[in-house]
Amino acid sequence: xxxxxGDQGSCLCNAVKATAIHMSHKVGACHCNMCQQWTxxxxxxxxxxxxxxxxxxxxxxxxxxxxxxxxxxxxxxxxHLFYRLKKNNQYFLPVGLFQQSxxxxxxxxxxxxxxxxxxxxxxxxxxxxxxxxxAMYAPMIEP
Length: 143
Ligand SMILES: [Zn+2]
Ligand SMILES: [Zn+2]
What we know:
Elements: E1 5-10, E2 17-23, E3 26-30, H1 33-39, E4 43-49, E5 52-55, E6 60-63, E7 69-74, E8 80-85, E9 90-94, E10 105-110, E11 126-128, H2 130-136, H3 138-141
Parallel strand pairs: 3-10, 10-11
Antiparallel strand pairs: 1-2, 2-5, 3-4, 4-9, 6-7, 7-8, 8-9
This protein binds zinc ion (2 copies).
One zinc ion (ZN) binds next to helix 1.
């Protein structure tokens, strides 16, 4: 992670606040089928590493979405709060939780092969297929 900045974000109803000590300014878009179904479209997330803490934790519902990862959301307002890789406790947080949008750049798009035809981002980004992502994160997702 380069150029990391710490920041605090919150869900729509403010019941949950997330604090990331080290946060990448590089935003990644995920077009995978699961994110599409979870959020209604692509999700834009930033890598926050493992140094993430939450207040209002009792308002968080965690959905065990795969053997290697889980997804959290606010049970009051439904805001998506995180995607967490279990093995290395790595958090990816939706960039929209944070207010300082000026600091971010759309840097990469993953699961580009699962992106539906009806939209595309015009940003110049590094794009990876699902197979490339699984290869890169193999140590985190293999049992
Ligand atoms: Zn909420
Ligand atoms: Zn995804």
